[in-house]
Amino acid sequence: MIVVKIGGSEGIDLDAVCEDVAALVREGTPLVLVHGGSHETNRLATALGHPPQFVLSPSGHTSRRTDRRTLEIFEMVYCGLVNKGVVERLQQQGVRAVGLSGLDGPIWQGPRKAAIRVVEDGKTRVLHDDYTGVVEIVNTEILDLLLSRGYLPVLTPPAASFDGEAINVDGDRAAAATAVALRAHALVLLSNVPGLLRDFPDETSLVPRIARDALEDYMGLAGGRMRKKLLGAREALDGGLQRVVMGDGRAHEPVRRALAGAGTVID
Amino acid sequence: MIVVKIGGSEGIDLDAVCEDVAALVREGTPLVLVHGGSHETNRLATALGHPPQFVLSPSGHTSRRTDRRTLEIFEMVYCGLVNKGVVERLQQQGVRAVGLSGLDGPIWQGPRKAAIRVVEDGKTRVLHDDYTGVVEIVNTEILDLLLSRGYLPVLTPPAASFDGEAINVDGDRAAAATAVALRAHALVLLSNVPGLLRDFPDETSLVPRIARDALEDYMGLAGGRMRKKLLGAREALDGGLQRVVMGDGRAHEPVRRALAGAGTVID
Questions:
Q1: Does the predicted TM-score (pTM) go above 0.90?
Q2: What is the chain A residue with the closest CA to B92?
Q3: What are chain B's domains?
Q4: Interface predicted TM-score (ipTM) over 0.90
C-alpha cells in the first residue's frame, strides 16, 4: 500500500501524476491518493473578492485564515474543481477513482481549534471564527471497502471536527495519518520542487536522503509548507511507515521516480 | 428504500431537509439523497464573469449551456459547496453521510451528447463543446456497500460519459434512475413549490394526485424544470417504483410530509 499526496501549489502536472498513478494501479499496486488545492483556492478567493489571508502563530508559523466564507471557497476548489478534475483524469485512464473528502463518513476526524492565537503588528490576538484543526482519527472502513472492490480513493480536506463541522486541515499531515492507519509502507509527497532544498529555491541544493533519526536537524531548513511535509514525514515514520519520499510533481512519471528514490528519501 | 432529491432552486430549506432525513435515518429507513445546485451555480458563474447561459432545443426545451468553464463552476458548486454543506449538516445530526458525485466510481454513466442542436434567433446551430448527457447506467455497488455499513450516500451530478468525461446531467432524472436501480419503493422530489401547479405560480392550483396512466396528460402543464421532474417520475414508475411525490422543500419536515401525501403524488 502506497499513499501519494499531490500538493496544491502551482506547476504540479496533474496529467502526469494521474497517468503514473493509473500505470501503478494497472500493475496491481494498492494506492490511495490525497491532494491539496491551495493555489486554485487563492485564485478563486481573489476572483470572488475574498482574497486569501495568512496568519502568523506566536511560534512563527504561517497558516491560512479560514473563516466561514473561506471554508466554502476551500470546499469548492478542493472537493469540486480539483477532486473531480483528478477523478476525471483517472476515469479517462480506466481507473475506477472515487473522490471523497475527509468530512465524508467522516474519514478524517479531529478537534477544531476553538481559538487560535495570531500575531498582527507585533500584538497577539485570538480568533474564534476560524475553521481549522488537525486529523486525530482516520476511519479506514470506507477506504478499505473501496480498495477491496478495486476502486481508487481520492481524498482531500476538509476533515470533520468532533462536532461535525468541516475543518481545514493540513493535507500532508492528513496524508501521513492516512498512511499510518492503512499500514502503508510508503508515503510519497509530491510538490513543485524536487524535494527538500538546503538552499531554497536553488534546486541543485536538494537533500537526497535524511535518516529518520536526523529528521529534527532538518526542521530548521524547512520553511512554510515544507515544514508541514517534514512534520508529516515524522508522524508517518513514527507510525510505522518504512519510507517517506518528497518528490517532484512537475516531472514525468513522478510517483514511480519518487518510489525509485528521486527526491528526498526519508527512512 | 427511499430516494430523496433536493432541488437546487432558491428557497429550499436545507436545514429542514437534513433534520428530517436524519430523523428518518434514526428510525432505520434506508435512504439515498440526491441534490442539485442550479441557483448557487448561477450565482457563482455570474460572480466569476461567466454568467449562465441557457439554450433552447428545436423541440422547445431549455437547458443549461455547459461549456468546459461552466462544467468547472458546476462541479465547484454541486460537488463542493452544496454537497459538503449537506454532508456537514447531516454529520452535525449524527448521520454518517458520504458525499459523492455520479462521476465517482463512476456511479452514473451515460453518453455525452457529442453535438447538441440549439435554436438562436430562429436559426438552428450545432454546439460541439457542450458537456451534457443523460444517465443510462447506475452502478449501485458503492451505494450498496455504504448503505450496508450504515452510511448515507449523498449524490450529485456530474455523471461520467462513456469516455470518462464529467457531464452535466439532469438531477431529477438521475435520481429516478438511481431509485430504479436500488429498487426503491418511493422517490421524493423536493423543490421550491408545493408540487405540480395547474396554474403556475398559483400555489392553490396544486395537483394533489396523478394516476400513472394519466401522466402524459400533465406533461403539457409542466414547464422548464417541472417537465424534467415529470419525465423522471415516469421513468421511475416505468422502472418499478410504487410512488413518486413532488413535495415542498421549503416546509417543515418536508420528506415525511411528502411521504404522508403532501404535494403531488404520482402512483
A1: yes
A2: A164
A3: 2-266 (3.40.1160.10)
A4: yes
